[in-house]
Amino acid sequence: MQELKLFMVLLGCRPPGRHTEQHDIFFGIAESLSALVPAMKAFWREAAQKIHIDAWREVNLVDGYRVKVSVRQDIFKMPGHKEQRLFFVNLGGYQPGKFEEQHHTILTVQPNRALAIQQAKATLFFKNNHFGKAVSHIDDKYGIDVDELYDIEEILPAAHKSAYMIELIPTENSLEDEIHLGYLKLSALK
Asked: Which positions fall inside the DUF1543 domain (predicted)?
């Protein structure tokens, strides 16, 4: 069996009745990106066969931690509280003269949501993408205040949550994960 990996995928499609392409972030665990195709399709059923990938990343290193996926052993032997958690934050902001909301996503390792929010608000994106009443924010469903911040283990597909766990191991490695950009049909992954 190959090593299991955590993937972060930017999915895109133009669902029926929409005028512009829509996007969402998918997190999944598998041996390869292609092995996640059924889970990506199940994640965004409304996309039908029009779903594609605009960007993806194997999540290996975040904030001085190596991200390791393990098969969940006996759930009763697992500690109830982890010292560090892996969070996904979607920042939204505005720039004068641009008829769109800018977005910036980050992964951060923190012990709790409050510190993850603090880390997100310290980014240059958060500080520089607002003016007047158009204030930078951590996006939630309505673009108000702070809520689109997730512990990644909580938003994994149900089958992945029950089968796997994410371990965060301190490392001296300061390299960053490679980000793969560009339109990629799911059918090209098979």
From this structure: 18-69
For every one of its 190 residues, what pLDDT tens digit does the chain have, with 9 covering 90 and above? 689 999 999 999 988 888 888 899 999 999 999 999 999 999 998 876 789 999 999 999 999 999 999 998 754 444 544 789 999 998 888 878 889 888 888 999 999 988 998 888 888 877 777 667 777 666 654 333 444 789 999 999 999 999 999 999 999 988 889 999 999 999 898 7
Sorted by sequence, the CB contacts under 8 Å of residue 92 that are 6+ apart come out as 101, 102, 103, 136, 137, 138, 139, 143
- Neighbouring-strand partners of residue 179: 57
Question: How many whole angstroms separate alpha carbon 108 and alpha carbon 117?
Answer: 10
**What predicted TM-score, i.e. pTM, was given to this entire model?**
0.86
Are 151 and 107 contacting, i.e. CB atoms less than 8 angstroms apart?
Answer: no
Sign of the torsion angle spanned by Cα atoms 133, 138, 142, 145? negative
> Which H or E element spans position 42?
helix 37-43
Give the up-direction half-sphere exposure of residue 62: CA atoms within 13 A in the CB hemisphere: 25
Tokens 């133009």 belong to 14
Main-chain phi, psi angles of 174, to 5 degrees: -105, 10
Dist. CA 8–CA 6, nearest whole Å: 7
Three-state DSSP state, 26: strand
